[in-house]
Design a protein that fits this description.
Structural class: alpha/beta
CATH superfamily: P-loop containing nucleotide triphosphate hydrolases
Oligomer: single chain
Radius of gyration: 17 Å
Strand content: 25-35%
CATH architecture: 3-Layer(aba) Sandwich
Distance between the termini: 33 Å
Number of strands: 8
Shape: globular
Strand order of the largest sheet: 5-6-7-3-8
Largest sheet: 5 strands, parallel
CATH topology: Rossmann fold
CATH class: Alpha Beta
Length: 209
């Protein structure tokens, strides 16, 4: 394996209510690579993202995630971080409280220094004790990046990564993406090719309906 984590899909298929969303989707990526998932609205980008993250089971085909030899033993979800506009937070709690809850769900002890560093990285730190309901949509999207990075995932999956972000937020996310590419796998699902600076692998779901 040469110290590289790898993901691979082979002949993936998914249907809803007898309608085929996509079929015969195959791909692979390993450490240092970006996998770009594109396709028109309704082509199944978010569905494929959920299969990669282990949230959905494919109707056919296989998906595999093979850790590198230096990755700690974790299940599939423990190796993946996900950012998506549809991920909800507890709006009555602060970002810091949400991080504490998220760490607990992942079986991690609450680490205030780690939480501070993550919220600083996404420019939420000055508002860390404010209820999430008081955040703008862009701040909520940046907060989702902090949650996705809690466990330093070797695979980071971004569904519409620049959703609701202004120039500052976009710059923060591009830095996160560049950092992820150095040591792990970056998966980006988007219709906007300007969301990614570069990519090595691509799945176009327009060709797989």
């Amino acid at each position: 394996m040469n110290g590289r984590i790898q993901i691979a899909g082979e002949g993936l298929r998914k249907e809803y209510n007898r309608r085929t969303v996509f079929r015969d989707v195959s791909f692979s990526a390993s450490s240092g690579e970006t996998l770009l998932i594109t396709g028109r609205n309704g082509s199944g980008k978010s569905t494929l993202v959920k299969i990669i993250c282990g949230v959905l089971t494919p109707g056919g085909g296989t998906f595999s995630l093979t850790p590198g030899p230096h990755d700690p033993p974790r299940d599939q979800r423990g190796l993946i971080g996900l950012v998506s506009p549809y991920l909800q937070m507890f709006e009555e709690f602060s970002a810091m409280e949400n991080l504490a809850i998220a760490m607990g769900i992942r079986g991690l002890p609450f680490d205030p220094a780690r939480a501070d560093a993550l919220l600083e990285r996404v420019a939420i730190f000055p508002r860390r004790h404010d209820p999430v309901r008081t955040y703008s949509s862009g701040m909520k999207q940046r907060a989702r990046y902090a949650f996705a990075l809690i466990h330093t995932p070797p695979v980071l999956v971004l569904d519409e990564p620049m959703s609701n972000l202004d120039g500052e937020g976009t710059a923060i996310v591009r830095t996160v993406m560049a950092d992820q590419r150095r040591d792990g796998i970056l998966v980006v699902a988007t219709n906007d090719l300007s969301d990614v600076d570069t990519y090595e692998r691509r799945v176009d779901l327009n060709e797989r309906a």
